[in-house]
Amino acid sequence: AVLPDERVLFIERRGAVNLYRPATGRSTKLATIPVTNQYTSGDQGEDGLLGLAADPNFASNGWIYLYYSPVGPDPKNVLARYTMKGDSLDLASGVILLEVPVQRDQCCHTGGSIAFDRQGNLYLSTGDNTNPFGTGYAPIDERPGRSPWDAQKSSANTNDLRGKILRIHPEPDGTYTIPEGNLFPPGTPQTRPEIYTMGHRNPYRIAIDKRTGFLYWGDVGPDAGTDSAGRGPAGHDEIGQARRAGNFGWPHFVADNKAYFDVDFATMTAGPQFDPARPINASPNNTGRTELPPAERAFIWYPYGPSAEFPLVGSGGRTAMAGPVFYRDDFGSAARPFPAYYDRKLFIYEWMRGWIMAVTMDEQGNFVSMERFMASHKFSNPMDMEFGPNGDLYVLEYGTAWFQGNDDARLVRIEYTAGTRKPLVAVGVDKSAGATPLTVALSSAGTTDLDDDALQYEWRITRTNGTAVSTLNEANPTFTFARPGVYTASLVVTDSLGARDSAKVEIAAGNEPPTVDIDLLGSNTTFFFPRVPIRYAVRVTDREDGSLETRRIPASRVVVRAEYRKEGLGAARVEAGARSTAVPASHEVGRRLVEGGDCLSCHQVNRTSVGPAYTAVARRYRGDTRARARLVTKIRAGGSGVWGQVMMPAHPQLTEAQASAMVAYILSLGQPRRPSLPVRGAYVPAAGTDSSTQGVVVLHATYTDRGANGMRSASAEEAVVLRAPVVVVASGEVSDGIDKYSGPEVPVEVTIGKRSGAFVGFKQLDLTGVSSIVFSAVAPVPNVNSAGGKVEVRLDSATGTLVGETEAIQPQAAMVAPSRLRAALTPTSGMRDVYFVFRNATAKEGQNLFVLFTAAFERGAGAP
After folding, report:
1. Contacts (Cβ under 8 Å, ≥6 apart) of 40
2. Distance between CA atoms of 507 and 510, rounded to whole angstroms?
């Protein structure tokens, strides 16, 4: 809730009420509301502190409204009003306006969004309070004792406040009255007059268009991934629009009134489909009217997979939310309102998919089109949004994982800058940690202004408690930290028109990070050779701890790993302390699919979220040769029951190959961790790697020090990567006079020499211990018009020292298998640029010489 003076209230489900003050840039906890979020089943529920709104007359009365699940024996949620006084919340001022009886035997669906219209009417959304895990279709289980699995008791019940959007008018004395135009006039038998709309599953975020009075909501739909001939339609999420009171169908209908079957759960037989023109609620759990108002369809709807009607919403997990309708005239005196382009557009957003859309409507409010808002940005599970008086859009982001304290949970302010744009600030430091006195060079490199305005720089050095240490007015100053501590260096950059922005970097003074090195003892530093030991020694020194050499650092505290990877490094990075030093390249596609989709909203690699940790999944299925096929099917079709009752959403938009790549990555996380190698020893690469052109050996060492001067520990790592001794000639960094070709008929990209003197060069290869290079070559006359020739091996340039050459390959009248051309090398040590030169002085103009595939570096007998 954004207050009239631009302060922002935000709440946390476990009861915290927080206040953000723009003047200080800080947030504080005002109070904690005692709430419960546990069910008698033992599950952690979705209950707690659920909804928040400020009174339309907050500036004069200080009232805020909270919807929450109070602690106590009575299962209920309550709407309460509290008074704020300055920057404090008076808990003693609490007045209960409305109670909503609920069941707390089974999870889920709470709703809890609060909004006001122009007349001061309060709208409150409530969920169906129904367990969704019994079926992914309509939860209408009418068997005795199964009321928590029957949404007909709530959403389709005209005499129950759950699964509704309620409309009341709060009165100053803490009571409320019923506005005209609700779904059931006061006194109507078997109804509740507070109901404005019914037939909702979990209308989690609602909004009111204060000009038209139209009500909007996002309704989180059921989990079925496909249509069923005996159950009904696949699950859809909905954006709803109500121009008047009405019934929006759940649990009998979803989306554009797609009808479910009246299923008898005792026999699991399907009766007729429900009729949207005359819905009937014959459930024994219904305490309201049997005949319901006609069902109205959703405004926007979409399934897990691609949407034919609204393709821009994408695919994947679904959690629809409804935000405000923007009117430019409402911000006539605002400092920076959004442009008129967004006038009368509805903002909707997706918790799982991370997007915000601007929806264009016609004069009657009918859907016209939608477009991505900030299309290049993926929001971190947006939870709520509201425009502030200054015209900024505040977005509350939940963060990646369910039921966690997420690092990416945050309150975001989105400003529209007309005319001059704020500087884009980048900060850096040459040394972010070290012993005192610690002298660092602060850098603003990368800071730009898109309008080319003159810039002023101000660095502010502060301690973590906010205490100011120093202010510097240079773009790239040097500063010395004399006392141990953790400091923040904040750079504020202001352009010539007053637009400003900032960025910061943290600096820890008091503990010098260690240094880690890996020495190769007589081994080649570019290549490994199959079955030939790589001898290494790790060196670790730390200013405070000592060194490995003096034994003040015990070898047991240094982690050393070695690994041969047939697929190479790919795009993976080397990570200290990881199970392996990086994700194998074969799993990179799967990792990117997992991290780029909605998977991390429900799963984390090493932590349990709403779903199991991926490492736990990998451990469970280790050695199960049939698991991959089952998991691929589950990712695409959805499912539940293995790790609990929470339904895993379907992902039908993923191909079988994509899902298989994801499963391969996930299962790779369960490979057993190998013990650390000694700090001095030898690693023997696996046999059978002689022909690999991608394989690498990675030696990796890491050490974490003990900290010093009250400062936290620091880590350092070092990795040495040795490449396979077989290289694709076409992969050379420099070349001249050659053509390259790749196609299905050749195993690797090939290099064709077009003239005598053509070359391919490799930068900085270690030839220590290399006695010869064997080239794979062909010289066919058909297609290539080969003249034949030989390969010269030269150092440092194409005309440099000749250290070896092959016999000539003769032109071949037909395409044949590649020949092996061996060039014995003059003994050479150390790192050199190596050039392969095509040579045939008798070749005619227009003739190609020959084709090279690979070059294999061979180790000489007795070489180290």
Report:
1. 104, 105
2. 10
